[in-house]
Amino acid sequence: MTDSTATTTTTPTGGGPGRGHGTGAGADMAKRQALRTRRDRVRRWSWGIPMWILALLFLLPFAWMISTSLKPDVEAFRIPMQWIPDQPRWENYTEVLFGESSILIPFGNSVFVAALRVLGELTTATLAGYAFAKLRFPGRGKVFIAYLATSLIPAQLLLVPRFVYFEKLSLYDTLWALILPGMFTVLGTFLMRQYFISQPDEFAEAARLDGANEFQIFVRIYLPNAMSMISALAILTFVWSWNDYETPLVFLSTPENYTLPMGLTSFTDENGAMAAGLSMAASVISIVPILLVFLIFQRRFVRAMTESALK
Prior knowledge:
Pfam families: BPD_transp_1. This is Carbohydrate ABC transporter permease. Belongs to the binding-protein-dependent transport system permease family. The chain is mostly helical and 311 residues long. The protein has a domain of 183 residues: Orthogonal Bundle (MetI-like fold), CATH 1.10.3720. The protein contains 14 helices and no strands.
């Protein structure tokens, strides 16, 4: 009987050469990651600091407006300017809200006009945009191009014909002279059409197979998906209506019908000049609704703009 010898093979463990190689690779990776993080931080600061500077520059007029709204008229244009008044004049806001030339009525008129213009614009723009994007009818492209061509006409050229037209309809010096034209805009229809075109047609085909009519397809399928673009259009329409000065200047003559931009012109001193403190206080109040609307719909507005840029 022959004895056999068993040979045992050992593998390196613990602190062998393999572990040292892995430790070196990990250290190199950590160094590269730290270097990349440092570069990203430098790049972020190199863009962030100029953006903060620009933001502060853009905010300077608003800071001047708030500062002036708390000053007497004699201190409004004093040089050098005092940004923080020694004794803030809060009476300016009280006078603006409850004084002889109160902006509460023009404020309410502006809210009424803006709300109806937004509702009307969203209704007509979504319906027309869907029709131009998804419905098939003869001359669809030509009608849409003709509709777009109307935007080439300057709005100022339409003031006189619109004035005559509204006067014959007994709409002159009424808020409806501001509301009705604002319910139909080329830009709103164009934005909604472009959005609906980007949506797949397969959704509508599947719904038709299930027996849905065209209005049901629009309301239940495409309209819910368009809420981000609808929110963006609502913000734009509200801002246009809220800041509109030219149209009320032409179509309104009774102070009780004035909107807020017209009401801001009623603050004058005993010499007939602009009362800077009161005007700036009224201006501060006038921008509050715009800020609230934007803050409420901010996420959807940014999402709509991002989706439009990507598409």
